[in-house]
Each structure stands twice: as C-alpha cells, then as structure tokens.
C-alpha cells in the first residue's frame, strides 16, 4: 500500500520559514518525480514545485520562485519543501504528489500551512 505522509505544517508569521516533509512508502521512490501542490480555501489546487526522480531538475510556480526550494533524499524516501519569506497568501493546505508517467499517481493527505501575525 502506497503512503505519502506530509509533516511540518503549522502557523508561522509573515517573513518566517517552514520546512515541509513528505515520507513515501510502498513504492519505488526513485521511479517517481515528486511534486508539492497547495490549495487555499475557495481556490483550485495549484502546483507549487516539482523535482525529477533523480533530483537533478526542479521547477517552481512563479509565485514562489526565489522563496521556496524543493529537494529530495532518495535514501530516506523523502521529499522536502523549504519555504522562506512566507506571505499570508501562501496559506493553504499543502499536498505531496508522486508522479510517474503511465503509472498510477499518489497523493498525501495534506498539511495545513497558515501564515499570519
């Protein structure tokens, strides 16, 4: 059974930092590109950042470029999202996603990030 378990969310002040983690199990982690999505209340889910299976290619939404950084540790089956200079508009539920073309994709349960003073 595939599981993606996010952790690290919570409340942070504007300008602060937070690191999200997503631990994967039940799949061959190195076969999957990993992505972070987020969904704010009343809005559609949006792609925040992605990283290739080898970890050598990353991409980011324009809204987070220069502030967020995605990385992965294939030895630990874990992907991370380092979020710096957080803004109130970054408030959302953040989801981890495992992607492999032609294969089922998987989602985590989400972790709430709230940026507020």
Query: What does the average pLDDT come to?
Result: 97
Structure summary, number of beta strands: 11
The succession of helices and strands, N to C, reads EEEEEEEEEEE
The low-confidence runs, each spanning 5 or more residues with pLDDT under 50, are: none
What percent strand? over 45%
How much helicity do the residues have?
under 10%
Radius of gyration: 13 Å
Q: Tell me the distance between the termini.
A: 40 Å
Largest pleated sheet = 7 strands, mixed
Give the class from helix and strand content and strand pairing.
Answer: mainly beta
Number of helices: 0
Q: Judging from the principal axes of the Cα atoms, what is the shape?
A: globular
Give a quick set of tags describing it.
globular; mainly beta; seven-stranded mixed sheet; four-stranded antiparallel sheet; 117 residues; 11 strands
Q: What secondary-structure arrangement, pairings included, does this model have?
A:
Blueprint lengths: L2 E5 L2 E3 L5 E8 L7 E7 L6 E6 L6 E3 L7 E6 L4 E6 L8 E8 L6 E2 L3 E5 L2
Parallel strand pairs: 2-11
Antiparallel strand pairs: 1-3, 3-8, 4-5, 4-9, 5-6, 7-8, 9-10, 9-11
Question: Can you characterise this structure?
Answer:
The structure is a single chain. With 117 residues, the chain is an all-beta fold. It contains no helices and 11 strands. Strands 2, 4, 5, 6, 9, 10 and 11 form a 7-stranded mixed sheet that branches. It has a 4-stranded antiparallel sheet with strand order 1-3-8-7, with no helix packed on it. Strand 7 and strand 8 form a beta hairpin. The protein is globular. The protein starts with a strand and ends with a strand. The mean pLDDT is 97.
């Amino acid at each position: 059974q595939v599981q993606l378990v996010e952790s690290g969310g919570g409340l942070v002040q504007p300008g602060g930092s937070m690191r999200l983690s997503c631990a994967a199990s039940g799949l061959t982690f190195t076969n999957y590109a990993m992505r972070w999505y987020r969904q704010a209340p009343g809005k559609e889910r949006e792609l925040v950042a992605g990283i290739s299976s080898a970890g050598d290619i990353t991409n980011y939404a324009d809204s987070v470029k220069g502030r967020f950084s995605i990385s992965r540790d294939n030895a630990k089956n874990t992907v991370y999202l380092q979020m710096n200079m957080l803004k109130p508009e970054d408030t959302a539920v953040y989801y981890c996603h495992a992607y492999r073309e032609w294969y089922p994709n998987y989602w985590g349960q989400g972790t709430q990030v709230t940026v507020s003073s």
